[in-house]
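Forgive a beginner's question, but would it be possible to get any protein sequence you like and the tokens describing how it folds?
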Amino acid sequence: MSERVQTAEEQTANAQNASATENGNILEVRDLKKYFLIKKEWKLKKVPLPDAGEAAELGPQGEIAEAVGEETVAPSGGAAPAETAENAKKDGAKFKRKIELEKTFVKAVDGVSFDVPYGKTLGVVGESGCGKSTMGRTILRLHDVTAGKVFFEGRDITAMKNAELRKIRPEMQIVFQDPYSSLPPRLPVGEIIGEAVKIHKIVPNSQYRDYVIDVMRKCGLQDFYFDRYPHEFSGGQRQRICIARALAVNPKFVVCDEPVSALDVSIQAQIVNLLKELQRDLKLTYLFISHDLSVVEHISDRVGVMYLGNFVEMGDKKDIFSNPMHPYTRALLSAVPVPDPHYKVKRIILQGDIPSPANPPKGCKFHTRCPHCMEVCKTVAPKYKDYGNGHLCACHLYSQE
């Protein structure tokens, strides 16, 4: 019997799988972008005409209206700004007026690239609104990808259709930030944790209850919690339920979206230690998103610092905390409280507010707040380069060649 010839798509997929295995990365993100449409507005533009007798042209949906030297009528659903004959005379040339629909986008994630090795934790830090959570959700395809590629174990999940994506959903899970709003209030804990187990047929129905209870025990939950409802639990217990729900389908990769930010400090330590124990026992890989640099230092192997939709620095945990290169990273680290009343930290206070992600500044996005800003920073975006030992940074303070 002759062997089946592989298609080009299958050959590409096999090559990607081999590459992922060789590199030891479970996740590879390449130039990922996620934009949100926030505003649509009609704009009137004037275009010079070579011939005054040229007939007005209308778009296929009537979205463009044109005239020569006189007022024009807006397309259906919009109003064109009035223009007087005097303005037409001042122009001195014949023109056509064109009405176009302009769209404004928020660039929540604006071209990020990174890898996450098997069994490791990548911590992501940054100010509120920098795109951390959006990036995590986009990687899992909870948001559609605007541009870029996400490879999970060598498979390009950005190109997958819903039927294909559904098959690998159990392998990629998320623990949401708020343990109160992320749990359905009308379902008991057993059904919350076991709902995906039924849908993906993880175990036979006869073993369903025992399997869910076993998952609950791994996450520090008692057996009799199975029939209780979320409102009967504290914040820390709710977060354990969220973790159990994510782990019930045997994932390989988990996005932890600020899982301890809504909890007390003592409870935070319990949840972080639980995550580390589960990672050790179940060989999990984490993308850990947080504001708290102390928590990130405790749980992460590598750390990435985000600002306005981009990574400005990434490296091993030891390098980031002992030798921060980017001015923004230094400012964040200077704000970490030290539990020693005799130790004085030289706090770096950043001036100004975060620019709008809908209209980010040219050049380096951080130059409007950077204490080391140079003229080149205002016009030229710095290269995101490796300065040794996998320590990446995007700053004009260092060599760009």
